[in-house]
């Protein structure tokens, strides 16, 4: 019923940065109704309203990609959604949510305790760099649900937005003094590391985020570890602050189950997690997917480009 556009879709189409067989199908984020279940499915049934992460990027099978009418989605990466959440709203979730979950909860990443709808405060603070992005909006909410206070960065115009998601303090990354401001605000607090939702990606205009995260980690009482949404630039490899690329995989099904199977359905139903950022629906029908890709390429701020089917 709805699909969302992610940077990776544009990257694969425009840059073909991994080997692909043509013709190919792209897409990771879908929301719709279950039309058929496999024999190993136990949680979801035909007719359920669901949101899911299409895993074709990992499997290489065309049937597993999102931009088609009947994609196949592993049950571990799909959640039932309540009637109060529209398909267009739900479609913003999958890749942003799961990328955030891998960076926050995988043992070889930040390794935080799993989220719950009644979190126990840890007394610690997490910095999420880029809270108005899709990955960042999910990271803020998941970190809160894991019991952390959250500081974040975004443009000034999005301060209200990230605070609505639960961040206690927001800093403008366009300000030359942003690192000093964050380090001062973190005085007396302890941090389990930093979540960089932006990373270094010159091709899509993201620049300087991870360097600033390294500076904050070096100058504050922070575990010297950064989970970064992009590959680690060479100049930041092997330094005092470890920076690790978040790479969600099809084999992460235990975490998939914990997030899509256990946490998300209940959290959505109880209003403890909101699909964010808001969808910007740019068209309808599969023929509008290209409109979606072109529209994403023009740049977005605290929105997710969505196509209704
Ligand atoms: N590792 C993975 O598997 C994986 C999966 C998904 C995405 N990613 C990567 O994660 C990054 C984010 O993806 P996305 O889909 O979440 O992006 P997005 O929603 O398209 O990002 C747009 C947002 O980025 C913010 N932003 C841009 N530059 C920034 C900076 N230097 N510091 C802080 N915020 C900045 C903007 O904030 P303002 O509008 O407030 O200025 C804007 O709201 C991309 O690099 C993407 O390729 C990786």
Written account of the structure:
Keywords: Oxidoreductase. Pfam families: ADH_N (PF08240), ADH_zinc_N (PF00107). It comes from Viridothelium virens. Residues 11-307 form the Enoyl reductase (ER) domain. GO terms for molecular function: oxidoreductase activity, acting on NAD(P)H. This protein has 309 residues and is α/β, with parallel strands linked by helices. It folds into two domains: 2-93 and 275-308, Quinone Oxidoreductase, Chain A, domain 1 (Alpha-Beta Complex); 96-245, Rossmann fold. The chain contains ten helices and twelve strands. The protein has helices at residues 7-15, 56-59, 87-90, 94-105, 134-145, 159-165, 178-185, 209-219, 253-269, 289-297; strands at residues 2-4, 29-33, 49-53, 78-80, 125-129, 149-154, 169-172, 194-196, 225-228, 242-245, 278-284, 303-308. Strand 5 (125-129), helix 5 and strand 6 (149-154) form a beta-alpha-beta unit. The chain is globular and about 55 Å long. The mean pLDDT is 96.
């Amino acid at each position: 019923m709805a699909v969302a556009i992610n940077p990776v879709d544009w990257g694969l189409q425009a840059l073909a940065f991994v080997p692909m067989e043509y013709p190919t199908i792209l897409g990771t984020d879908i929301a719709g109704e279950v039309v058929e279940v496999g024999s190993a499915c136990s949680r979801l049934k035909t007719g359920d309203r669901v949101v899911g992460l299409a895993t074709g990027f990992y499997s290489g099978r065309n049937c597993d990609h999102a931009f088609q009418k009947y994609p196949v989605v592993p049950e571990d990466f799909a959640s039932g959604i309540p009637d109060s959440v529209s398909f267009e709203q739900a479609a913003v979730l999958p890749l942003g949510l799961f990328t955030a979950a891998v960076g926050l909860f995988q043992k070889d990443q930040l390794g935080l305790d799993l989220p719950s709808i009644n979190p126990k405060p840890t007394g610690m603070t997490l910095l999420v760099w880029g809270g108005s992005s899709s990955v960042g909006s999910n990271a803020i909410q998941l970190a809160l649900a894991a019991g952390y206070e959250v500081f974040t960065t975004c443009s000034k115009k999005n301060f209200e937005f990230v605070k609505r998601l639960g961040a206690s303090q927001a800093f403008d990354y366009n300000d030359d003094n942003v690192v000093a401001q964050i380090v001062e605000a973190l005085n007396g607090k302890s941090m389990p590391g930093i979540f960089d939702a932006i990373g270094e990606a010159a091709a899509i205009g993201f620049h300087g985020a991870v360097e600033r995260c390294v500076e904050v980690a070096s100058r504050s009482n922070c575990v010297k570890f950064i989970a970064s949404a992009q590959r680690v630039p060479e100049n930041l490899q092997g330094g005092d602050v470890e920076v690790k690329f978040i790479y969600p995989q099809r084999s992460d099904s235990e975490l998939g189950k914990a997030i899509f199977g256990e946490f998300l359905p209940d959290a959505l139903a109880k209003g403890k997690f909101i699909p964010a950022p808001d969808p910007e629906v740019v068209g309808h029908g599969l023929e509008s997917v290209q409109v979606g890709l072109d529209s994403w390429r023009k740049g977005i701020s605290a929105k997710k480009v969505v196509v209704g089917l």
